[in-house]
Amino acid sequence: MDALRKEEHYTYNDYSSWDDGIRYELIDGAVYAMSPAPSSAHQGVSMALSIQLGSYLKGKPCKVFAAPFDVRLNADTFDDTVVQPDIVVICDQEKLSGTGCTGAPDLVIEITSPSTARNDRLIKFNLYQQYGVREYWIVDPDTKSVTVHILESGKYITSAYADTDSVAVHVLDGCTIDLTEVFER
Question: All domains of the chain, ordered by start, with CATH?
Fold first, then answer.
């Protein structure tokens, strides 16, 4: 993930004024262009996860949102870090704004592609841990695997799952995701 401009420092105010048809993310004030439209495999996995989460959350206070959806991780301070995860779950309704979330979502899911895998596993892993995302999933459609990171005492504890597993969502008591449905052929 290379910054587009290395000498400027941008904030959410700058970011929200750009209207050039390109999706961006800001990390510590640096601008990153997002990849072009994701693959059909990526979109299928995103839809399957969203359906399972949405079905579980129906009538509950937590809500699920899919990209594009701005997550302003440090809106209360520098407001220079805005990401667009593939899927988020937010339980604190006061974090919702007109176009996204201010503060850390309860659950973030990133679905990797060859062009984003390194960023998801390193840069965003550290970012989500730093800002207190309680649960972070990295879903890999190519290997049909899910890595789940649970925040404990400020550090992520990691578990890995295969396409035949069911995964309990730590932040949603009683919610289990069936990966056989996520990675259907």
Answer: 38-76+83-182 (3.90.1570.10)
Residue 86 near residue 111 (C-beta atoms within 8 A): yes
pLDDT value of residue 7: 60
Residue 62 has a pLDDT of: 97
Helices and strands per DSSP (H, E), number in the chain: 5, 13
Alpha helices in 28-178 (DSSP H): 40-57, 117-118, 124-130
Q: Which amino acid is at 16?
A: S
Token pair recorded at residue 136: 């972070």
For the chain, how big is the Rg over CA atoms in Å? 16
- Res. 1 pLDDT band, cuts 50 70 90: very low
HEC string of 56-81 equals HHCCCCCEEEECCCEEECCCCCCCCC
